[in-house]
Amino acid sequence: MKLNRRLFMGGAAAGAATLAAPMAQASTHGKPRVVVIGGGAGGATAARYIAKDSKGEIDVTLIEPSRSYYTCFFSNLYIGGFRDLTSIAHSYGKLAADFGVNVVHDWAVGIDRDARTVSLAGGGTMPYDRLILSPGIDFVDGAVEGWDVSHQNAMPHAYKAGSQSELLKAQIEAMPEGGIFAMIAPPNPFRCPPGPYERISMVAHVLKARNPTAKIIVADPKDKFSKMALFQEGWADHYPGMIDWIGSDFGGGNVSVNPDAMTVTIDGEETKVDVCNVIPAMKAGRICELAGITDGNWVPVNPHTMQARADENIHVLGDASQQGDMPKSGFAANSQAKVAAMAVRAALTGSKQFPAKFTNTCWSLIDTDDGVKVGASYEATDEKIAKVDGFISQTGEDATLRKATYEESIGWYAGITADMFG
Fold this sequence. Notes:
The chain is an alpha/beta fold. It contains nine helices and 25 strands.
């Protein structure tokens, strides 16, 4: 008896995915059809590359509810006053006009893996031969005691850029003199950008200019974090005495919040705060759960093709995937999208598939012209995406180098958004 997995919520995995066959898969309905869910760094890139490189041989549909996409990368710089909101907003017009992508502004609410269809909130269905999921993150229910998404106006997460970024920025700027900003930092693994520690730097940058007696408290369930020495050096240099980072050794993981009273309790000690940025534990976007392809929180994938281990007809990119050593970054999603696009074209049209290679760099701004970075190159093994080599900024670098690093990030932003949206 054939199992119908429509809106499937659990159960055993459907078997390990294998590498896409080198010959084209037969289609009984004319052109092969690819549906991409999620129009961010992974989804938009995959849609563009499949449409561009297949030269009309594949029908590509991108499902994304937002008409304007606000990048998580550089959203912290908006909060810090280094960018305006329009500079991180992008439309899908060129994907449609220049590359022939069918852009559907709707929510994907279900996947029937047997019928190979996607259900839309508007009532329609979209058939596919290959499906690409790049839905980003959702939050783990109950991850921060006292908080859920119904409290996001009182205590914003600002982890999906746009209106939440605007709200958090407004709250920071409205803080009373000498007020307290608190952040509840997430456990690993988490989406970055928008990095929590760059965000702290940008909040401190604003407060140093507008409210220099204000204080920042960071409650962190981790005992260390990426670029930790660089951030702590920068905080001491630029914002001395303003930032109190409380790691796991000092109760940073024992936290609850009260959005009505605007209090944060850390290891039993309650503090009244003026702004609280709650960043809960994360998991793959909800549509992955509905498809029944997660391991509970994330989607295990084949590193060579980004195919879900549970279903070879679905590729999962970026934040939602459990792939190995790569961070959950926009750069990583963009890199993975190109590998997936190549695998999809190979499977559907018989084009050549080359060995998967991946790269990533994450830039952070600590203060004006004080940029730092970390990055690596990766290759696919049968087990995971494995780090090959890497680099990181060093403490004590001179101001000229740090300014050059920041300017490099500006060039990267222009390049990656053009790569995503055309």
